[in-house]
Amino acid sequence: MQVNCKVNVVNRLLPSTGKSGPSRLAWSSITLTENKSSVIELALATSRNKAGMKYRVTNNIEQIFSKFVSQGKLTLRFREPAHDLCLSGEVKQMEKILAIIKGEDVQLKKGILCPILSNSTNKVVIPKTKLSILSRADYPVTTSFPETLTYLKISGIALKKFDRRLLHLKLLEILDLSNNQITVLPETMHNLSRLKQLHLSNNEIKILPETFINSARVICLDMSHNQLMTIPSCICRLSGLQILKVDHNKLRCLPSTISKLKNLRTLTLSCNQIRILPESFQALALDHIDVFGNPFENSSQEIPLNPGSLTIRVATLLAISAKSTIKFKLKYTEEDIPYTLITYLHESSTICPCGKLCVDDGILSDGKINLLKVSGSVSGDKIVPVKMMLCTATCFQRFAFKMIS
Ligand SMILES: [Zn+2]
Questions:
Q1: Buried-most residue among 70, 76, 309, 340 (CB within 10 A)?
Q2: Which parts of the chain are coiled coil (predicted)?
């Protein structure tokens, strides 16, 4: 039986043993064989050391650390030499190795899975980590995608559906499905927990599912040239996001939660239907923003500022709870307060220009913002209207229809 997995060889006799140094996992080829005397041996070869190292398994294992085998991790402690082999690979492979070593694998005992050691150890197969599919003919239909992929590009092949097999590529860091005809994204895309870059430009996507992706690892999201009408407020969960491209869509507004993307540096909004930006926009600190080609409203019309005539909305119970939680700096977990309140706290609160927290009980008004104050460079209009939530009538008099600095 031969498998490819990552292995860290720890020599217990060396002084560094036991210290948590940097991981030295190397792609290796492991071959388990049984010789004529029914002794099981394990041969380990890497691309650097093709001749490899041979370990006797039968009566030579001091301890097996299999607690994390369900996560694809297994450590074998040999008596002679005093080595620990820390294996990391696919769960099925680890379970198979464990079964063989424990003598539970019948197949090996019969000698079926016993390739000749000397031949097999010379071949160290480095698993495929990058794959580009740029023509329909290369698209795997009967075969599967290698589970070891970290980069996958499937572009320009008129793909109509998001292939659910991709959701099993747990190691994927960059996924590029640009220039296709995808209309719907799966709701379980957050399963791709290692994703750093997602390129979906030039497709026909109308909706971003609420549970789309929520990892703080994502740094680049390109949804340009699609059919998006809105961006869900849960976008704020992508706290590591640096580049957000949503130009050439059908967006009418942006969620106020966009200001929670503290690491955002590039934002492209050009060629949408945006008439007004959320007030929280002033909290952004961008390097570049592109707002070209949006029908921004000219909010120059003044209305009489009579505080008495203003209707201040009554706060909902949810808003009052949220305010109290923040006012008293309550430390909470999901066990202490309802999930709806947590979501509300994370996604709904805005700050009045006076600095006070404002929830949905404030006065909605318009103002203006100079985009050069939130971004190093601006393409398109510099002065654009923003929607404001003002906490009191006094703040309305002070800020409504004015430039927020
Ligand atoms: Zn205020």
A1: 76
A2: none
